[in-house]
Design a protein that fits this description.
Distance between the termini: 15 Å
Number of helices: 12
Number of strands: 6
Radius of gyration: 19 Å
Structural class: mainly alpha
C-alpha cells in the first residue's frame, strides 16, 4: 500500500469543474418547482413531538439531489478508469438505495425491512470494490482484517456509516454543510493519493450539489429537508469511499488512516456512538428515533438556533480538516 502524500493534486480537470457546476445549477434550478409540487400533493414532513420544525415541510432534497449528481457524474466523469463491474454495481447500489429512501420518505418503513436491503446493497459494493484485506496499521490494536470476519467488520462499518449520516439530518443546514466540507476534503485526498479518480469526482460533484441544496435548507425555516433518499445515498457514497481509502492506504501523511477518517467524520461517529449506547443501556431499540442527538441537545441548551448550531459543528469540522491537512502535508 502506497502511503505517500502529495501537497496538492497535480491538476483539476476542467471537466470536473463543469460537472460540479452542472450539479450545482441543476439542484438550484429544479428544487423550487419540486417543492411546489410536493406541497400540492402533500409530500410533506409533519411536525410532531420528536421533530423540531413547526410547519409541514417537503422532504424532497434527496429526491432532487441524487439524480442531479449522478447525471452530472455520468455525463462528465464516469467511469473515469473505474472497472466496469465496479461501476455497474455502484450505480445499481445508488439507485436501489435512492428508491428505498424515496419510498421511506413517502411511506415510512420499519427498520426490519430497510436494514436487510441496506445490508445486501453494502455487501455487493464490498465485493465489487474488492475492499479486503484492509490494513488498520495497528490502530486500536487492529492490523490486517480479511476473510469472512473482515467482511463482516466492513459490512458493519457500512451500516454504521449509512445510519450515522442519516442521523445528522436533524437540524437545518447540518447535513448539507457538514457533508459539503468533508466530501470536498475527502475528494482532495483521493486525488492526492490517486486512490480512485472516478470516486474522487463523485465526491466533488456530491459536495457541489449538496452546497446548492443548502440554499433551501440552511435557514431558520427550511423550505425542504434532505430525507432518506438523500442522506442514505450520501452515507453509502461515504462508506464506499472510506472503505476504498482504507484498503489502499494504511496511513495518510504519517497518520494511521483509521484515525484520519475518524477525525474527519468525528461528528457522526461520536453522535452515533452516544445514541446507540444510550438506547441500548436504557433497554430501547437502537433504531428507535428520538430527539437526543448531540445537535438536538446543543440546540436546546446552548444556542437555541438551527443555523448557529450547524455553523458551530461545521466550523469545528473545518478546523479539524485544516489540522489534518497540515499534519498530513508536513508528515509526507
Amino acid at each position: 500500500m502506497n502511503n505517500s502524500f502529495i501537497l496538492l493534486p497535480d491538476s483539476l480537470d476542467s471537466s470536473l469543474v463543469l460537472a460540479m457546476l452542472s450539479a450545482f445549477v441543476a439542484v438550484l434550478t429544479i428544487t423550487p418547482g419540486v417543492i411546489k409540487y410536493a406541497l400540492k400533493v402533500n409530500w410533506i414532513d409533519l411536525p410532531n413531538g420528536r421533530k423540531l420544525h413547526k410547519r409541514p415541510t417537503p422532504s424532497i432534497g434527496g429526491l432532487v439531489l441524487i439524480p442531479c449528481i449522478i447525471i452530472a457524474w455520468l455525463l462528465f466523469a464516469a467511469p473515469k478508469g473505474m472497472a466496469g463491474s465496479s461501476f455497474i454495481t455502484l450505480m445499481a447500489a445508488i439507485v436501489l438505495m435512492y428508491l428505498l429512501g424515496l419510498y421511506d420518505d413517502r411511506w415510512p418503513l420499519s427498520h426490519r425491512i430497510k436494514l436487510p436491503i441496506q445490508v445486501i446493497i453494502s455487501a455487493s459494493l464490498i465485493n465489487a470494490f474488492d475492499i479486503l484485506p484492509v490494513d488498520f496499521n495497528g490502530a486500536l490494536g487492529i492490523h490486517l482484517i480479511q476473510d469472512w470476519w473482515g467482511f463482516l467488520l466492513v459490512l458493519l462499518f457500512f451500516q454504521f456509516t449509512i445510519n450515522a449520516v442519516n442521523f445528522i439530518d436533524g437540524i437545518n443546514g447540518l447535513l448539507g454543510s457538514y457533508t459539503a466540507v468533508t466530501l470536498t476534503f475527502l475528494g482532495v485526498i483521493f486525488l492526492c493519493l490517486s486512490v480512485d479518480i472516478a470516486m474522487a469526482w463523485l465526491l466533488f460533484i456530491t459536495a457541489a450539489g449538496t452546497l446548492a441544496y443548502l440554499f433551501f435548507n440552511f435557514k431558520r425555516k427550511a423550505d425542504t429537508f434532505m430525507g432518506d433518499a438523500g442522506s442514505t445515498v450520501i452515507g453509502l457514497i461515504i462508506a464506499a469511499s472510506v472503505a476504498k481509502l482504507l484498503s489502499h492506504h494504511s496511513s495518510i501523511g504519517g497518520i494511521p488512516s483509521f484515525y484520519f477518517v475518524a477525525l474527519l467524520f468525528w461528528y457522526p461517529l461520536i453522535d452515533s456512538l452516544q445514541v446507540y449506547s444510550r438506547r441500548i443501556l436504557r433497554g430501547q431499540s437502537p433504531f428507535k428515533a428520538d430527539n437526543r442527538h448531540i445537535h438536538h441537545l446543543l440546540l436546546k441548551h446552548v444556542v437555541n438556533n438551527h443555523v448557529k448550531a450547524s455553523v458551530l459543528i461545521s466550523s469545528l469540522t473545518i478546523v479539524i480538516v485544516c489540522m489534518l491537512w497540515i499534519i498530513a502535508s508536513s508528515g509526507s
